[in-house]
Specification:
Strand content of chain A: under 5%
Largest sheet of chain A: none
Strand content of chain B: under 5%
Structural class of chain A: mainly alpha
Number of strands of chain A: 0
Low-confidence stretches of chain B: 64-73
Shape of chain B: elongated
Shape of chain A: elongated
Number of domains of chain A: 2
Order of helices and strands of chain B: HHH
Number of strands of chain B: 0
Radius of gyration of chain B: 17 Å
Oligomer: heterodimer
Number of helices of chain B: 3
Number of domains of chain B: 1
Mean pLDDT of chain A: 80
């Protein structure tokens, strides 16, 4: 390996990563809200959850975006963890669209001549335009960067001999060793797509055999679990559980992939033979999809039991609406974050209103107002990026939620200085009338189903149910 | 809840007058009167905040009919 090739390779990889970043950002901001709404309503069944995970990932070109969005829904209490697991599993299959994109447009249909104009026009639009045109600019610039990056990767790869036979040997353990290299590649690059693209380029350059490339693809899939583990550090319970599910799933499927490497590689090779594929890049993209599909099929019958297993092995934690408030909610969109803030406020309000009701009835109460919880909601709302909210629609709700929090804080003040009984003095009848009104409100706002209160099938959520009371 | 809050506000005024009248004529002790006044004030304030909290939450849930009212508030 000479220094010039290594520099070209690293630069090409950097351009590829920047390209994927801009492409995903552009796709998310162009269609993110529609995609999230679709994802939210499609997760009701097992099959539809998996399919929506695949489609969202293909459309956003990011399994991380899909996973974080669905974790946001769980954190907001809009979908159950079981539904989220289906989406996460689907996302792993959807992520194989990137190797196909690279294999087809990087090696078969040459669009390198158009990459520079695409980058120029895209960057120009991204800089001067606003709204959706800016997003289109980001997508164009992303595509341009991605394919320029692949060109540099190809150039750099020509001067590099991987000599993986020496590393992996030819014995029984070589697939595991190469899978280990694949894991390291994903961790270092922080992107299985970039690692897969590098492997495709290496295969195209003849630096790897097809079977070696397949083993590395399996490892790269497992390596994405490391990203999940990093996201989970210090995060809320929903995020931690999703990360554990992701890790357990990817490692299990990785083991299946290595154990069945021969037949799976043969299946990929067969797909390649159906096309003009002398270097095997299409066969490798096919292997990537087939391997992930086998993983989905292996877990599909267990899709009800698997989330329960994850819940059992993961630590117990706060399951309150306030406890579920997590910065990752923003990934699920401003509307979901607002809904989560609303639910958390309602949760605290119910406790405080019930304390007032009991005191109005003359009960002697001990109530410690959840001042810290209210502060957490305030901080959460403060952390929301207003760019993710359609202010035209959500501004009134956001403003009124701040009003609600102010009244909640004042109610908390009232509850810290509850007066003692006034001896024989009879409270006016308005006390009992007030208590009855509060009881009616408490009954009307009971969170039905003791769970999420959300029914994705008909798009109802707790806020909707509340409006109808 | 709004009606209940308004009613308690009215009763606070009349209740206050009655308590002060009673304590002046020594029908109740000063301590009972003070506790009664505090309770009236507390109940009125707490029920008012509970009502406004409930109403704000209702509007924040996305009730379109009240959107215009929020913008003007």
């Amino acid at each position: 390996m000479n220094a010039s090739s290594a520099i070209t390779l690293v630069g090409g990889l950097g351009l590829f990563l920047l390209g994927v970043h801009h492409l995903t950002d552009g796709l998310k901001s162009l269609a993110g809200d529609s995609l999230r709404r679709a994802l939210q309503t499609l997760v009701a069944g097992r099959l539809s959850a998996v399919i929506s995970g695949v489609l969202f990932t293909v459309a956003s070109q990011s399994s991380t975006a899909t996973t974080l969005a669905v974790i946001g829904f769980v954190s907001a209490g809009l979908v159950t963890f079981s539904q989220a697991v289906g989406v996460i599993i689907g996302a792993t299959l959807g992520t194989t669209s990137t190797p196909w994109l690279v294999a087809i447009f990087g090696f078969r249909v040459s669009i390198s001549a158009g990459a520079l104009p695409m980058l120029g026009i895209g960057a120009f639009l991204w800089l001067i335009a606003k709204g959706k045109t800016r997003s289109v600019g980001a997508i164009l610039a992303g595509f341009g960067l991605l394919f320029i990056g692949i060109e540099y990767l190809q150039t750099g790869m020509e001067g590099i001999s991987w000599n993986l036979d020496a590393v992996g040997g030819n014995g029984f353990g070589w697939p595991w060793i190469l899978a280990g290299i694949g894991i390291l590649m994903s961790i270092v690059m922080q992107s299985s797509s970039a690692a897969a693209a590098t492997t495709l380029v290496a295969l195209h350059a003849g630096s790897l055999t097809f079977d070696q490339a397949c083993a590395m693809i399996v490892g790269q899939s497992v390596g994405t679990a490391a990203t999940s583990a990093l996201v989970a550090i210090g995060a809320g319970l929903a995020v931690r559980r999703a990360a554990i599910a992701h890790i357990v799933y990817n490692v299990s499927v990785g083991i299946i992939g290595i154990l069945l490497l021969g037949p799976l590689a043969a299946a990929g090779r067969w797909v390649g033979t159906q096309f003009d594929d002398p270097d095997g890049v299409l066969a490798l993209a096919a292997f990537s999809s087939i391997f992930k599909l086998v993983g989905v099929l292996a877990f599909y019958p267990w899709l009800d039991g698997f989330p329960r297993f994850i819940e059992r092995i993961s630590e117990r934690g706060t399951e309150t609406a306030v406890g579920r408030l997590d910065p990752v909610l923003a990934e699920a969109g401003g509307a979901v974050a607002l809904e989560a803030g609303w639910r958390a406020t309602l949760e605290l309000a119910r406790g405080s209103v019930d304390a007032v009701r009991r005191r109005l009835l003359g009960e002697s109460i001990r109530y410690d107002p959840p001042v810290e919880g209210a502060r957490q909601i305030e901080q959460f709302l403060e952390s929301l990026s207003l760019e993710t909210l359609d202010l035209g629609t959500f501004e009134p709700r956001l403003v009124r939620l701040c009003h609600a929090l102010d009244h909640l804080n004042q109610l908390h003040d009232d509850l810290t200085r509850i007066p003692s009984d006034a001896g024989d003095w009879q409270t006016p009848t308005g006390f009992k009338t007030g208590a009855r009104a509060l009881a009616t409100w408490l009954e009307a706002t009971t969170q039905r189903g003791a769970g999420t209160g959300y029914h994705p099938g008909n798009g109802r959520c707790l806020a909707t149910a509340y409006r109808r009371t | 809840m709004e009606d209940a809050s308004q009613r308690l506000t009215d009763e606070r005024k009349t209740g206050r007058d009655k308590l002060l009248g009673d304590v002046a004529l020594q029908r109740i002790s000063a301590e009972t009167a003070r506790n009664g006044l505090e309770m009236l004030s507390w109940g009125d304030g707490a029920l008012y905040h509970a009502w406004r909290l409930a109403e704000s939450l209702r509007i924040a849930s996305g009730d379109q009919s009240t959107t215009a009212a929020i913008r003007n508030s």
